[in-house]
Amino acid sequence: MHVDMYGNIPLYYACLCGHHAAVELLLSKGSWDNDNDRCWLSALDVPIRLLLRAHEKRRPDLYAQNLRAKNEAVAAGSSRE
After folding, report:
1. Residue pair 12/36 in contact by the 8 Å Cβ criterion
2. Residue 74 CB burial class (10 angstroms; 0-12, 13-18, ≥19)
3. How many CA atoms lie less than 13 Å away from 42 in the CB half-sphere?
4. Which of 24, 26, 41, 78 is deepest in the core (most CB within 10 A)?
5. What is the pLDDT of residues 59-79, one digit of tens each?
6. Alpha-helical regions (H) of 1-81
7. Which is nearest to 70 in space by CA: 27, 37, 32, 26?
8. Rounded to an integer, what distance in angstroms lies between the CA atom of residue 64 and that of residue 24?
């Protein structure tokens, strides 16, 4: 997966700019932001948010993996304090 110097992936930019077809294509090819809420929050409009949520429901394995990673990061952060 290509990540630019700012840590953004193509899916992020497609959501941000409102490119529905690009979002659909990237999702169908397996693009997934580990911090998918970032794409969702940056989406230009509601239809793109709906695409992201629909894809998330079709990919419970990725959603569960993402959630697990977030929980581990939070736990690791709290154990350092």
Report:
1. no
2. exposed
3. 18
4. 26
5. 656 656 666 777 677 777 765
6. 10-17, 20-28, 36-42, 46-58, 60-79
7. 37
8. 21
Tell me: the pLDDT tens digits for 26-49?
Answer: 998 888 876 657 888 889 899 999
Choose between 30 and 10: higher pLDDT.
Answer: 10
**Neighbour-count burial for 31-55, b at 16+ CB within 10 Å, e otherwise:** bbbeebebbbebbeeeebbebbeeb
Distance from C-alpha of 59 to C-alpha of 3, rounded to nearest angstrom: 22
Report d(CA 4, CA 1) in Å as an integer: 10
Q: 54, 27 in Cβ contact below 8 A? A: no
The owner of tokens 């690009």 is: 22
DSSP 8-state code for residue 29: T
Looking at residue 14, what is its pLDDT? 95
Does this model's pTM top 0.70? My answer is no
